[in-house]
Design goal:
alpha+beta; Beta Polymerase, domain 2; 5 helices; about 40% helix
């Protein structure tokens, strides 16, 4: 290498790497865990979390639970939404079925919450439709 070229070369230090306490997957799993805890707080029954990341690209997890009445399904949906907003600043991308309360679907992007009445849950039977999904235990 010529002396002129060596003079033009400048040594650059690499940018410092920011320390991240949780990976993206761990943070999503923590959000799912919090959603399950919030649903339990409002006495949701038969709570199931399914990992769908190996089966589909539209979401990583489904959380499925049952309320005893439409009023309870709405309370469960409200509590999960409030806790995720408070602790993660996470807001739903879309909410469907809240007014009727038979099947409330709340899309948080990385996971989808399904809050059913017992009749609707047995009719739609999402666990059967997604039976190849891994069940996540907390």
């Amino acid at each position: 290498m010529s002396k002129a070229l060596k003079k033009e070369m400048v040594e650059v230090e690499p940018a410092p790497v920011k320390a991240v306490s949780l990976s993206v997957d761990e943070e999503i799993l923590d959000q799912v865990r919090m959603a399950v805890a919030a649903a339990e707080e409002k006495k949701a029954e038969n709570i199931v979390a399914l990992r769908l990341s190996a089966l589909t690209e539209f979401t990583d997890y489904f959380i499925i639970c049952t309320g005893n009445s439409t009023r309870q399904t709405q309370a469960i949906a409200d509590e999960v939404t409030a806790q995720l907003k408070k602790n993660y600043r996470l807001r739903p991308l879309n909410t469907e079925g809240y007014t009727s309360g038979e099947w409330i679907l709340i899309d948080f992007g990385a996971f989808v919450l399904h809050v059913f009445t017992e009749t609707s849950r047995s009719f739609y039977d999402l666990e059967r439709l997604w039976r190849d999904a891994e069940v996540v235990r907390f």
